[in-house]
TrEMBL record:
It comes from Psychrilyobacter piezotolerans. The lineage of its organism: Bacteria, Fusobacteriati, Fusobacteriota, Fusobacteriia, Fusobacteriales. It comes from the Bacteria. The keyword Isomerase applies. This is Alanine/ornithine racemase family PLP-dependent enzyme. Pfam families: Ala_racemase_N. Keywords: Isomerase, Pyridoxal phosphate. NCBIfam families: racem_Orr. The keyword Isomerase applies.
Amino acid sequence: MTEYPRVVVNLEKIRDNVKFLTKKCYESQIDVVGVTKVFSGSLEMAKVLVEGGVKYLGDSRVKNLKKYKNLDVPKVMIRLPMRSQIKEVIKHVDISLNSEISTIALLNEEAGKQGKVHKIILMIELGDLREGVLPEDVECYMDQLNSMKNIKLEGIGVNLTCYGGIIPSFENLEKLEIISNLIEGKYNLKLNIISGGNSSSLDLLWNNNMPPKINNLRLGESLIFGRETAYGKDLEGCFHDSVKLEVEIIELKEKKSYPVGEIGVNAFGEKPVFIDRGKRKRAILAIGKQDVDHSNLETMDEKLIILGSSSDHLVVDVTDSKIKYKVGDIVGFKLNYGSLLQLTTSPYVKKTW
Ligand SMILES: *Cc1c(COP(=O)(O)O)cnc(C)c1O
């Protein structure tokens, strides 16, 4: 028996996307870190990214990177290390993104103990207000880094369009170039990596507007959905339908669309709002908020209306569809980044490659 709900992944389409996008990046002398966080550390997925041509694998969780130890590319930790995991980071991670000197000092100390030199990318804050050292503090950081024998500054990087929604531009990425020139000149060293962001930086590449010194991007969403994320545009030459969700109908009845009785709060303490459409045919599907936020789902059958969900139930209005749905039928959904991230994290959702 097939298990439901399940996320169906077309690895061939993702492999094609990875080949296409890494080639496009390499033509501009840009290496790609393939970011796997949206697949909860799946080894199958990581292999596809490496086969497709990424030069590094990146993830925010050490637990995931650990699984890739037999894949022959450097592992990049793309979230700042926690102080409570320094040992694990030195053991399983080749390059980590950093912005706190006290954490880097601990990495230095632990790397010494393990007889290693740990590489870091120093993150620079350029407007998005998530991680990063303020540009005016970079020199102070450099003075301190210089005395750390077991840390190698592999490069610098920026993250945009994640927290503040700031769109990468020639101007803000050029600041990264300027800072790299300053570091290389003043400290007489060569930075191997100038990492210009994530899938939201692809639009600059497409418009030949990427500052020339940017030689690295960390890509996740674009590899899977074939989409840049500054404006949400589908990239020509990529597949956009490499993943879908399938869920089973467990009840199908004609019911009123407006609840009967006094309306209080739902199971999540919210006062629900209803549209009275009269009597409608309603399907209950076996998936719920524990697995996914329904506002990030879209039905493949455009005539269906997602009404709402509770912990384990999703209610869908099927009245207008040409398809005569019945109990036991499977309903398909398109996914976005948010729903894919949640679904792959739920142990109750089967993943099919
Ligand atoms: C998630 C993440 C990425 C990848 O972002 P996408 O939008 O999926 O390409 C890159 N860098 C960092 C630091 C991240 O957290």
